Amino acid sequence: MTLEELRQQIDELDNQMLDILNKRMEVVKYVGELKKTTQTVIYRPEREKQIIDRLAAMSQGLLNRPAIEAIYLEIFAVSRNLELPERIAYLGPEGSFTHQAAESRFGAMSDYLALPSIRSVFESVDTGRARFGIVPIENNLEGIVKETIDLLNETDLKIVSEIIIPVHFTFATKAEKLSDIKKIYSKDIAFGQCENFLHEYFSNKDEEFFAQVDSTSKAAKLAAQQPDTAAVCSHIAAKLFDVPILFENIQDSSQNRTRFFIIGKDFVNQRSGNDKTTIIAKLPEDGKPGTLVRFLQEFESQGINLVKIESRPAKEGDSFHFWFLMEFDGYFLDENVQNIMQKHVSDIKWLGSYVKMM
Ligand code: PRE
Fold it and tell me: How remote is the CA of residue 217 from the centroid of ligand 1, in Å?
C-alpha cells in the first residue's frame, strides 16, 4: 500500500473516531445536566479508574495500559470541562513536578492556576477560587511533606484522589559542549537525587558551580536565559522553557516516585471496592503507657491493613505531644472501619477515602 492510501485509511478512521467522540460528549452533556439537577460532583476519580481498568483489560490491539490511560485522561478532562469548567490550582511554578502531576490527571485542556506555596493552594480551594488543588504529600526517597500534612490538619479540605508519578530528572542546556558549562542550576533535593551523575561528569567543580534555586523550573528558566549554564530539572520544565535535553533520567534511583494529593472542599468519593482511607488520630493523653499500641491493635483486630503512620508534633504547650496521620486499606463506611471511627469519634479526623492508585 502507498503512503497516500495508508493516510486515506487514517483519515477515514479519524472521521469515525470524531463521530464517536462527539456522540460520547452528547451523553456526557446529559450526565452533566443530571448532575446539576441532583447537585452531584462532576469529578469521579473512581469511575474514571474503572473505565481505564476495564478498557486496559479488554484491549487486544497495540494500545497498552499507559497509552489507554493517556488518551482517556484527556477525554475525561474534555468531558469534565463540558459538564462544568473547573479550575485546578497546583504548587507551581509552571513546569514543576506538581504541574506534571496535575496535567497527568486533568489533561492539557483544564484551567490551571500555578500558586507559590502549598498553603496558597489550600486557600484557593477553601475559598472556592479553584475547585481542586494538587499538592505533594511524599517522595519515596525524601519522605513526607510536613506542610501538606499540617494543612490537612488545620483545614477542613478533603483528599479526593492520589497521583503517583515517577520523578525523572533531565540535564538540559543550550551549551554546545559540557566543557562550555559554567554553572548548573537546580533545587537542593534535585542535586541530592542526581549525585552519581553529577559526580561522574562534574567531579572537579567547586561548590559555586552548583547553584541552588527555589525550584527546578526556575533552574530551567535560568538555563534558557544563560546559554553557558545548565539545569537539572523535569522534562516538562525543559520543554516549557525550550532548553535542549542532553541527558534523560539522570537520577540515582529509577524507583524515585512522588505521591500527590488532589484536595477538594466538601468532597466524598463513592466506594470503588479498592479504596484507601487517610485519617488524623489525636489520642487522649491519659499518661498510661501503651495508648498508641492499643489503638493500633484495634486495626489488627478489625482486619484492617494499616499502610502508613506518620507522627507530627501537636505544637501545643511545652511538652512533647504528638498526633498521627494514618492510612489504611478500606472505605470509611466499611463496617470494620466504622467500628473504629465510631469508637473514637472525638479522636479521629477523617481526611478522605479514595481509589487506590498502587
Ligand atoms: C465521566 C466524566 C467525568 C467523571 O470524572 C467521570 C466520568 C466520563 O467522561 O466518562 C462522566 C461522568 O461525569 C460520570 O460518569 O459521572
Answer: 32
Terminal Cα-to-Cα distance of the chain (whole angstroms): 44
The amino acid that residue 278 corresponds to is T
Q: Quick one: which atom of ligand 1 is closest to the CA of 32?
A: 13
**Does ligand 1 lie within 6 Å of residue 80's CB atom?**
yes
Atom of ligand 1 lying closest to residue 44 CA:
5
Q: Are 165 and 100 in contact, with CB atoms under 8 Å apart?
A: yes
Shared-domain flag, residues 202 and 345: no
Domain of residue 341, CATH code: 3.30.70.260
Q: Is the dihedral of CA 298, 300, 305, 307 positive or negative?
A: positive
Residues 153, 190: one domain? no
Q: What's the pLDDT at 50?
A: 94
123 lines ligand 1 (CB under 6 A): no
Residue 229 DSSP code? E
Residue 184 bridge partners (DSSP) = 210, 230
Looking at the structure, tell me whether residues 280 and 210 fall in a common domain: no
Q: What is the whole-number distance in angstroms between the Cα of residue 120 and the centre of ligand 1?
A: 28
Kindly state whether residue 307 falls inside one of the protein's structural domains.
yes
Please report whether residue 267 resides in a domain: no
Atom of ligand 1 nearest to the CA of 42: 13
Integer Cα distance of 352 and 331 in angstroms: 9
Residue 26 lies in a domain: yes
Q: What pLDDT sits at residue 310?
A: 94
Q: Provide the residue range defining the domain that includes 326.
A: 273-355
Asked whether residue 58 falls in the same domain as residue 25, the answer is yes
CB distance 48 to ligand 1 below 6 Å: yes
> Is the minimum distance from the CB of 77 to ligand 1 under 6 angstroms?
no
Q: What are 268-298's pLDDT values in tens digits? A: 999 999 999 999 999 887 667 888 999 999 9
In this predicted model, what pLDDT tens digit does every residue of 5-41 receive, in sequence order? 999 999 999 999 999 999 999 999 999 999 989 888 8
Any domain includes 268: no
Last residue of some domain: 261, 285, 315?
A: 261
